[in-house]
Amino acid sequence: MEDKLTKVYDRETFFTVLAKHIVTVHDHKTKLALLVIDINHFSHINKQYDYSIGDYVLKSFAQLLFNAKRSQDYVARIGDNRFALILVNIMNTGHATLAAQKILRLLDVHFQIKDYKISIDATIGIALCPLHASRATGLLREAEEALSIARKHDKSIGAAISVNDDELSEHWDIELDIEEAFQNRQFKIYYQPKFSLTTKKPVGAEALLRWKRRGQFVSPDIFVPIIEKTGHIKPLTGWIINSVLRHSSRWTKKWGPLSVSVNIPPDLIIKLDLKDFVHNAMNLWGDENITLVLEILERSFVDDTEKCFQILRDLQSMGVQISIDDFGTGYSSLAYFKLLPIDELKIDQSFVFDLNKDEANAKLIHLMVQLGHNFNLKIVAEGIEDKATFERLGTMGCDVGQGYYMSKAMPEKEFGDWLETFAGLEE
Ligand code: C2E
Ligand code: MG
Ligand code: MG
Predict the structure, then answer these.
(1) Ligand 1 binding pocket, CB closer than 6 Å
(2) Ligand 3 center to residue 387 CA distance, Å?
(3) Which of the four pLDDT bands, split at 50, 70 and 90, describes residue 171?
(4) Of 263, 264, 380, 385, best ligand 1 pocket probe by most atoms within 8 Å of the beta carbon
């Protein structure tokens, strides 16, 4: 329902919309920002003029927010002089801050109401889901808290800074359980098929780590960063590389040569001594029909760029391929791009999910395909959830695809059986 006075959403609808989008955030691993916006000294306006002018100010302010937002965002009035803006699909706090600054800039111009010129200013609190809270009520609390801290310090914009206490204690619990998980060998490797978008046949798999904690899977997005902070990520990644080479050599009977990808955390390229490690693992388990692909992130190169590049070049000379994961979300410049020793770009899922609804994403994918092909790179798209997206990416020139439309990740044995019996994608 809409708020009677300002015609934007009311508080109740705000909660419904927020909760709905939070589900999408969790399903699609995107981010959402909540901005809570207070008109400062609103009671003075009411006192100085009269209530009807106060109402006009609220209406004009709601209109200003409505005009300032992008079409996919939402505005609501959640208190007397308090408004909320839900920004969907944003990258980070920086983006949300830019939106807040835009609103404040628009307020530089006074409102003309009847014969009065009324200037107002506002204070804005920002919180991100899932960074600061993973539920609607918690997110609102975080944004309101950020707002009141900003006001106390005489600032017009404040962002929540830390994860909330619940998440923090959950983090510690997980850390303790991770110790036990190592001792009890609870980590498993699952495999998600990769498909050629031209032949529509399987061409390989990505190895993805799985951990069942107290009977429930925990997302690697949560536990991998925790493991990265412990000393365990090095032996764990070593174990994954060895296991993947060992498992995959059993799969090539039906489909011939395959490629298997392993995710490598940024620090480890140098720290694991990746070159020697992979060399030894390939000596033990290597198979001429298997190409090992290492998926790395753009931020891997930030420190010690030259040393990192040298290791990657050495790996390439051993027949290992290097892929940039989550491409399009990093910040490396194009000048730097031409130097990267890589074989493949893996377009981030956030561009792929809405491909057929969001033409801007389609244009960006187009650009990434052209860029990649001009540098002789293979283009992989991940997050393909339906047939239409699969087909479209094929016509756009993407080479390989991965996603729930074809299959989720499976345990090793199941993946082997799946490969043996796979008879084609459903028409
Ligand atoms: P990633 O490397 O970008 O992996 C792709 C993620 O997208 C996987 O999530 C996969 O299950 C998911 N995915 C694939 N197709 C679809 C789809 O159609 N729809 C949706 N909604 N999701 C899809 P997962 O397994 O939860 O892994 C998340 C991230 O955790 C990975 O992102 C990677 O960064 C990290 N990770 C996973 N396994 C490992 C590992 O063995 N080592 C390291 N260092 N990181 C890992
Ligand atoms: Mg990956
Ligand atoms: Mg990815």
Answers:
(1) 27-28, 192, 207-209, 219-221, 224, 240, 263, 265, 295, 325-326, 349, 382-385, 402-404, 409
(2) 20
(3) low
(4) 263
Of 154, 152, 169, 10, the closest CA to residue 77 belongs to 10
What's the token pair of residue 197? Answer: 């978008």
Ligand closest to Cα of 348 equals 3
User: Residue 64: how many CB atoms within 10 A of its CB?
Assistant: 19
What integer is the mean pLDDT of 66-84? 94
Regarding beta strands 378-382 and 344-347, do their DSSP bridges make them parallel or antiparallel, or are they unpaired? parallel
CA dihedral of 47, 51, 54, 55, whole degrees rounded to 10: 170
Q: Which domains does the chain have, with CATH numbers?
A: 11-163 (3.30.70.270), 179-426 (3.20.20.450)
Question: What would the two tokens of residue 149 be?
Answer: 């801290």
Which residue from 36, 55, 38 is spatially nearest to 46, judged by alpha carbons?
55
Conformation bin of residue 116: beta by default, left when phi > 0, alpha when psi is -120 to 50: beta
Q: How far is the centre of ligand 2, averaged over its atoms, from the C-alpha of 348 (Å)?
A: 9
pLDDT tens figures, 318-338? 999 999 999 998 767 787 888
**pLDDT averaged over every residue in the chain:** 91
Q: What is the pLDDT of residues 174-211, one digit of tens each?
A: 777 888 898 889 999 999 999 999 999 999 999 999 99
Query: Residue 310 C-alpha to ligand 3 middle, in angstroms?
Result: 24
Residue 220 CA: nearest ligand 1 atom is 30
Separation of 173 CA from ligand 2 center, angstroms? Answer: 26
pTM for the model: 0.68
Task: List the one residue out of 33, 36, 102 whose CA is nearest residue 64.
Answer: 102
**Residue in 234, 290, 313, 230 with CA at minimum distance from that of residue 266:** 234
DSSP string, 325-345: EEETSS---HHHHTT---SEE
